[in-house]
Specification:
single chain; 417 residues; alpha/beta; FAD/NAD(P)-binding domain; seven-stranded mixed beta sheet; 18 strands; 25% strand; globular; oxidoreductase; FAD/NAD-bd_sf; MOase; FAD-binding domain-containing protein
Amino acid sequence: MEEVVIVGAGIAGLGTAVALKKVGVRALILEKSKELRTTGAALGLFASAWVALDTLGVSDKLAALSAPLERGYITDVRTKSIQEVHYPPSSRNGALPRGVHRKVLLEVLAEELPPNSIRFSSRITSIETQVEHGLSICIVTLDNGTIIKSKVVIGCDGIHSIIARWLGLAPPVSSGRSGVRGLSVFPKGHGFHHSHALHQFVDVGKRAAFFSLNDKEVYWYFGATCTPKGMEKEEDPEMIQREVMEDLAKDFPPVYLDIVKHSDLSSLTWAPLMFRYPWDILFGNLARSNVTLAGDAMHPMTPDLGQGGCSALEDAVVLGRHLGDSISKHGKLMTQYVGVAIERYAKERRLRAATLVTVSYLSGRVQQDGSSRLMRFLRHVFYGLLFARVVKGLTRYDCGKLPRVSSLPSCESDSSI
């Protein structure tokens, strides 16, 4: 019997477990892989993420290991025009956006958890709810026959979430684009001018980006409306690298091609860019009884705003905040109040998540689709003036603070299971 079971040890899963620990609840994380997953190499964390990381107590540790992103440059590959964008700092702690190794982020979060909080090689095969002693509990079955009972189950199991399917959500859909991600290493240092900046390059049907993680490592991304040759099976990283350099990005600036050339081939990944329709998030079942979702399991989105990891960390804090209000003086979740807490969490996250999914998708369309005068107008005027302000506002979201353990509500009798 567990207080909380979290399915998936990604950013959302680990972040949620840390948030619950902060409010006095231990969670068991079930991860199907043999170790922490680091697919994607790195990610940019903007202001809203640093607010969440500050609440989780790990912002200082991560900031010391990553480089700030003070501004961004968006280059039109055909016209050579460049737009400069300044990223706002966090409204709470003044933190600037930073590029972070995905592995480092996961490890820092995992270090905050008690021993044996993560059970690797644990693949769930089914989930159901039932009533015991008048209270609803969850029953999770693993592929080895293990049965785990829990007061709460949180699906943080990614785009193809088993928990989302159990809740009845429609599966994510393709955006019509695919993305390649990689990490490049320069043993003697890359020496880039404007190393504390996010560089983006847009062309018809194509978008690329890179930023420095430190003096020797650079994260890069390439997205296209077509599926690059030979990438369907993701079997040959050399083919992926060659396809990007010699075909898809051959007209991109030499600095970008040089970065791709220095790729650590073991870091290269290709995947279709998926998202969930925003109306499914607004009106779908994000929670039922004592089961809910967080991260990509709830709101998969295209990477055009760089908000996937940020919103997962927001989810973790908001969910921890609501569940923290359902704890007895004995430090146990009161099962009779858990369902209400989860419903409040889902209600709070619906509009925020649907908005991020929508704006991310539209941002990608405006930046890279079409070469007509109208699309160029949208790209240079609408995106540069209006859309950028909307994006800045979205990235300064404050997910709130967790209740202190000493200030949590108490009750004379704990009727939880």
